[in-house]
Every structure is written in structure tokens, then in C-alpha cells.
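Let us practice reading a record.
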Amino acid sequence: MKHSLKIFACHSNDALAREICHRLGVPLSQLEISRFSNDNLHVQILENVRERDVFVVQSFTAPVSDHIMELLITLDALRSASAQRITAVIPYYSYARSDKKDKPRISITGRLMADMLVTAGADRVLTMDLHADQVHGFFSVPVDHLTTIPVIADHFRQHYDLSNMVAVATDAGGAKRVGRFSERLGIPMAIVDKRRIDDTTVRQGQMVGEVSGRDAVIFEDEISTAGTLVSTIETLRAAGARSIHAGAAHGVLCGPAIERLRDAPIDSIVVTNTVHVAPEKRFDKLTMLTTAPLFAAAIERIHSGASVGALFA
């Protein structure tokens, strides 16, 4: 059946797409993305996709608007070329953070992006570790929502002694996610009482749970500017944690993140390759794990009609 499978990649994470193809034993299909002299994007599919099962890999990373437009135009081009089914593979769906109306007169942009993807031609979506689970419901087409919890948990199981480890949520909102992570490892969890002052400033409060003398692992869906992570590290140090580690699905690492993390009193940081991390952003404490096996397995199951949920059973 793989002869009918086509995988394309736009510009955000070509390396991940190539690794997925390598694991599936299929070549990366060819498309051309260019710009007209007026800066408009132009996408041409360079292979026959008529009646094929097509997957397009693209993360919503900087420059976010360009990458979204690349994906939308590619989906539309594939639909016009008579692809049988088109799946948008979005390892990092950044607009999942815009999941509610928490201020007057703003857009719930996570839903707007979902509508645009469907309008452009996506028949289904494959994504990973959405910031908020309810974003899954923004789509009017099927969504397969993967998680990096098994990948990151296995890393800590292989490299650390879990007997004295505790999983830490940076706020109450992340408790459910961290609960799944701690259950996977069979370790207790703690929660930091966080108060957000504004979009860039976070004030940490009380620690709920025992961390004194323990090896703490902070688990997040993403690390962007690292403000929340650094303030959590400070809270854990003050509470007497013996060592501090962090794990996150998406290593966005924007703004002052690298400088903050290089200077932070943290022992290790683990992220995955849902977001391409440029060489200049990498440093000694940072470990990159691959999500290609998970995406490859999910794509193969979608293509063959098997259960994707069974991957996490």
C-alpha cells in the first residue's frame, strides 16, 4: 500500500520530515516553494498525487505567518491536483495557546487557524502535545493528537535514578499533563502555585508537594522565552531540591530563552525535534530527542486504517 503514500515537507522542519520518510522506507516527495517579485508565495507540486494518500509536514515556527501560508497554499495545491486524502502533519501548533477569550475583543486564533486549514484542503490533522486539549475540538475534521510523554519519560528512565525523583508542574493548569508524565514514570508529583502578572512576567508562590532533597523534573508542553521555567527553577532551589531537570515537547527557545537557560541553575533540559533548534541555540545542558518514530508509526497507521490510539495503550 505504500506506493500510494506521499509525504511532503514545507520549510519549517525538513530534517524531521526526512527522518519520518527514512523510517517509513519512502522517499520525501518533491514540491517547490518560491516567491514572486511582489513577495507572494508560489507552491508547485512536482509529482503526481492523483488519488494518493498525502501527508504534509509543517510546524508553526518562526517565521510563523510565512510557514502557515506555505502550508495553506500547499494544501490547496494538493487538493487541486486531485489528492485522494490530505493530512496536515503539524508537530508544533503554536496557535493552540490562543484557545480562549481571556481579554475583550480578541480572536480565539487557535480556532481560526483550524478553520483555515480545513478550508485550504486538510481532510485530517496529525499534531503533537497541544497547549490546551480543547483545541482538538476546534477542528471539523478528524484529529490525531500524539504526545511526547513516552519519549521523554523513557529518556529519564534510562538515564536517571527514579527512586528519589518528583515530577513538577509549573502551575495548576499543567497538573493533568504532569500527572500523566508522573504516572508513566511511577513517581510522585508537585505543583507550583503560579501567578501571571502580565504577558512576560510570572510570580511564583507556594510549592504544593514535597521536593526538599529530591531530584525534580519540571515537565512542560513547551519552552518559549523560558520565563516560567526559570522562575520555577528558583522556587525549587529555594524549596531545597537536590537536582533540577526539565522536559518539554516543544523547544521553541525564543527571545531571551537561551541566555536565561545557560545561566540558570538547572542540571539538564530535554526537548524534542517538533521544532527545529538551530545549532547556535544548542548548548551543553540541552538534549534533543526525536519524535520521528512516533510520527512514522502514526502515519503508517492512518494510511492503513489501523488504530493510532493503540500506540499509547
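A brief commentary: The helical segments are 14-24, 64-80, 109-120, 149-159, 175-185, 227-238, 257-263, 292-304.
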